[in-house]
Amino acid sequence: MWTVNKLPRMRSQEDIDFMRKNYKVPSKYTNFMDKSDINQIVDFWQENRADREISAGGGAKHGKGKTLRFPWKWEELGHIVGPYVNEILKTKAWRLIAGRMYLVHNDGRKWDTVHTDNWNLVKTQPVAAPTNNGNKFWDWLEENEQHKYYPWRTIVFPLQIKSKVTSTVLFDNVYFGNDCLNWNRDNEQTRNYIENLQSEDLISDEVYDKYLNHVDRNLVKGMEIFDIYDWQLGDALTWDSTQLHVSGAMEFGETKLGMTVWTAHP
What we know:
This protein is of the alpha+beta class and 266 residues long. It has a single domain, classed as Jelly Rolls (Sandwich). The two termini are 25 Å apart. 26% of the residues lie in helices and 25% in strands. A 7-stranded antiparallel beta sheet has the order 1-8-5-10-4-3-2, covered by helices on one side.
């Protein structure tokens, strides 16, 4: 799938070669997390959300509804989540970048940002990048280059599903830059760095209407879908953090709650 040779900002050919060598396709683990563990995590979220939950970014301009982000610490939930992550990665030698839960709901807002998870050391002690992309990010990284890292896997555990169709759409395209790519905003500036980007429309009307109707069709022109993962409680979804993806379309009033773990190579 590798079709781009142009190096992203502050990435060497050695960096790109390492990430290409260690890239693995997305996968789904069925009936993976015990129901008792799901219940413990949801109970923890319900007990603490009033003090900790904040509005998530990306797409707020589309409506008044708020997708809510709930940060959590490894010492709080790592004893539950850690064994699952170790099994997915087939090793205990990995680095935690961050963990969050997201309550995504469609009540007037579209959760429509096509993006990657390359950088999520944001306001996390002792590293405090001001954001995960944009000018402030690059200014910070140029002064703190020692904190560059190789992103590894994004892992999502569905926790609550209150919708007819709940999905994550994974594209067969990757971006090996340091920053989290916001494709909706930066597609013109970054398309020369996207692997496997084509010129024609590769997504059928049927798939677009069911899973991507909340996303501008022109944004996904030239992208090919690797897979669409329909959420089921107990499953785990995982993909390379450099892979472009987007939350699937949801009907008005529907919600989903998931836990995300971002990992990096040690």
